[in-house]
Every structure is written in structure tokens, then in C-alpha cells.
Amino acid sequence: MSNESKVTIAFSLNGEPAEVAFAPHKTLLEVLREDLGLTGTKHGCELGECGTCTVLLNGTPVLSCLVLGLACAGQAVRTVEGMAQGGKLHPLQETFADLGAAQCGYCTPAFLLAAEALLEANPKPTRDEIKDALAGNLCRCTGYEKILDAVRLAASHRSTVDGAA
To answer: Which of 97, 107, 89 is nearest to 51 (CA)?
Structure first.
């Protein structure tokens, strides 16, 4: 495809300014994976039913397979690649690893980002609130219990660090 049939947008990607050129019909999922090389966001059903492609758009979980890349101009996109900071895992990543919440790992980036958005909005969620926030994300390997436990543990660590516990 020639550059003439591409569009260029500027946006924030994982807290940094970014600019990317791509075919205007591409979804955010395709732009992230194919044009930016960020493969942490996974291809799932491409119908908006599995949640595997979840990213944060302005802090809100969205299904990147249903969002056009063009819609992200001037917006803030966060992927799993943006979670670790300064070589240190995000607390959610740590608790997922510590509790064995990720089995094959394919769905894990989406669960991590959905959980991050939840904890940002509600630092001390109940188990039912965690279930509700993660309900749009499917996992074929787990019974979800370790995932729920990992989010709860990350919330308790966050509360302790913030002095709220």
C-alpha cells in the first residue's frame, strides 16, 4: 500500500507521544499489532465477544477489534506493554505471576488492563465488583478464581502502599 492511501494520526501510546501511518480501514488492534509491533494485545474472536483484545482508551477498557484506529487520534491508548515501569512489574503483573493467575497467558494482557482500570476507579473492590469488571474477558484455561484472587491481592497491596488499609 502506498503512503498516499494511508492516514497518519498522533496520539498518546503508553504515556508517550506517538504517530503512526496506516490504512484508514484498520482497527486499533491491527494498528497496534501490525503497524506498531505491539503484540501484547491479542487477536481473539474479532467480533467483540471474547475481550482478548482489550486495551485502555483514555483509561476505559475497550475492545480494540471494534475501535477504528482513526478514532484514536488525539486520544490516550494504553497496552500491556505500558504497564511495567522502570523495569519493575506493575503490581497486577506481580500478583498474577505470584498466584499463577495466568496459565497459557493469551488472555492475560486483557485481564490485566481491565483490572487496572477497575482499581483506578475503585481501589478497594469487592469480589463481585471484580467479577463484574472482568466479565467481558474470557479465559479457556482457568476457572477464574486465581485471576480474581490476583486482582484482590493487588488491590490490598495498593491499599497498604497508599496507607488506606
So the answer is: 107
